[in-house]
């Protein structure tokens, strides 16, 4: 049996060389070209068992080639690669019939795995892959921004879901962009011509749940009158986004579960059942597994909603996206009438060193504030440092609990101190030097984390802490806190 032949089209010689060698070692025959025209000639001649093509070719866009290949050779699998690495590219590749989309730079092991899967997938499993064309517009917006590996996984997940009505559960901290992902799933999905209705179910008062979600019958003077429609009816034919389902009241959980199970609902005060015709996308910042253990969230509802889980990482886990996001927000401000702004390398570095407790929303707010308040065309690192220091001073001390909700720092300290006193009473040993011991326990991690944030710069650390530099040096020595050393072996300053 002849070995499968892989046709590779990419105008980058180094990419062609790497793929040719790797695929050859994996046991495939390989033909490479820098021209879309040559690739098309091979396809017309019946060559190849799999195509790997770049998007940006010198003579034709690789995405435009995909439907032609699918029409001429329906049995031929196509892998699309692109350095553009955007959601739009991933969706277009999938909806035009590509077997898989891989962003550049790609992981060679992953690519070989995809190739193996492509050549071994039965043909009937590919039927209808290109049955739906991508939304068309002259200038398509960028609904999501980021080129990190985590964002690429999200792009590909959204692309795969464009031909499905499966229920999706989006998880992530506040400010990560859960509604943006939900909107992208709608805008590129089968129901994009229908409405997108978003509702924060946690904000609905218990007595208004039925009317808000399912509508309410009305009467005037005892006679039948008009009625109000609920969110399920308003979203008919489209998508209903149930935001923050983890905070949903027990009554709302019960009603939503009933709709998902039975596929129909009745209005408040009504008797005639109405068929539900919506795609459900839910989101939460909570750990629903813990909520189920606590008894605050129904396990049966969780499994109805969590058909396809999508996790959005916090911004601190994808710091490589921060420069792109920051420039994107500044560009938006410019489009809205503000003067154009740019960021220095030092400014970018300081942005990437911040923890971003408010995630992407916090970064957007910072860029908008700077765009309005600062007259400089070029935003320096000093400006970023000043703004972040101010934000740090204004933010109340808090900690993140297991369910990702923030508790006031004082509450956490008091809780632990109560445990300490209780243990001391039980052991019959009264605590001694309590003030100094508690201060040391709090101060040690505070100074250590501040030094980490400033990369060992004690001047900046002292400013962030609001103490004299000599005081900081003394506390570092007294508390025996390791000091970061610079490349020269001296203390970083």
Structural notes for this entry:
The protein has helices at 13-25, 36-44, 62-72, 87-95, 108-120, 149-160, 178-187, 209-214, 231-234, 250-262, 288-294, 299-305, 322-335, 345-353, 359-373, 381-394, 409-427, 434-453, 458-465, 469-478, and strands spanning 5-9, 29-33, 50-54, 77-82, 100-103, 168-171, 196-200, 219-220, 223-224, 239-243, 264-265, 274-275, 279-284, 308-311, 342-343, 378-379, 398-400, 406-408. It is an alpha/beta fold and 493 residues long. Helix 4 (87-95) packs parallel to helix 6 (149-160), helix 14 runs parallel beside helix 16 (381-394) and helix 19 crosses helix 20 (469-478). The strands form six sheets. It has a five-stranded parallel beta sheet, sandwiched between helices. Strands 7-10-13-6-14 form a five-stranded parallel beta sheet. A two-stranded antiparallel sheet has the order 8-9. The chain is globular and about 85 Å long.
